[in-house]
Each structure stands twice: as C-alpha cells, then as structure tokens.
Amino acid sequence: MLCMRLVRKFMRNNPVQVHFPSDGKRASGNRAFGRLDAQTLHRRSCERYSEAVANHEIKKVEYMVLTGRLA
Fold first, then answer.
1. Which are the contacts of 8, defined by CB distance < 8 A and separation ≥ 6?
2. Alpha carbon of 40 to those of 24, 50, 55, 56: distances in Å?
3. N or C: which end of the chain has fewer CB within 10 A?
4. What are the extents of the domains in the chain?
5. What is the pLDDT of residue 67?
6. For 10-14, 36-40, 55-59, 60-64, which range has the lowest pLDDT when averaged over its residues?
7. 26 Cβ contact partners less than 8 Å away, ≥ 6 residues apart
C-alpha cells in the first residue's frame, strides 16, 4: 500500500491540465503536447491501477467471507 500512497501523493501534488489546440488538430510535433499526452496516459494508468487494487481488495474480502476466514 506504500506504492498507492506515493501515487496518490504524486497525483495530488502534480495535477495534470490537458490543453488541446483550438483548431482540433493534433499537434504531434509540439513537445509540450507530447508531454501532456504522456502525463494524461500516466494519469489514466494510475487510475486504472487504483481501480484494479481496489477491486482486488474487494474480491479478497469476499473470498475470505465465503471461506469463513472473515466473519
């Protein structure tokens, strides 16, 4: 769980603000947009990881209840 605390602290201290070009075109050659794309992908993967950990903990408790290890 230390990893999750570090991820949450990082996400809280480093909010990602995504900006898109007003003409709707992707600015793939622009380094700033490449960095924002990377940050957006990183944030999404952190969110998916958090969901996976939460779902795992829920399933673990359900298993423990079903097997009588947790009353």
1. 50
2. 17, 15, 23, 24
3. C
4. 29-71
5. 94
6. 10-14
7. 33
Q: Using 50, 70 and 90 to split pLDDT, how confident is the model at 35?
A: confident
Whether pLDDT at 61 is above 70: yes
- The Cα 64–Cα 48 span in angstroms is 24
Please state, in angstroms and rounded to a whole number, the distance separating the CA atoms of residues 57 and 43.
21
DSSP per residue over 2-64, as a string?
HHHHHHHHHHHHS-------TTS---TT-HHHHHHHHHHHHHHHHHHHHHHHHHHHHHHHHHH
Question: Tokens 């998916």 belong to which residue?
Answer: 48
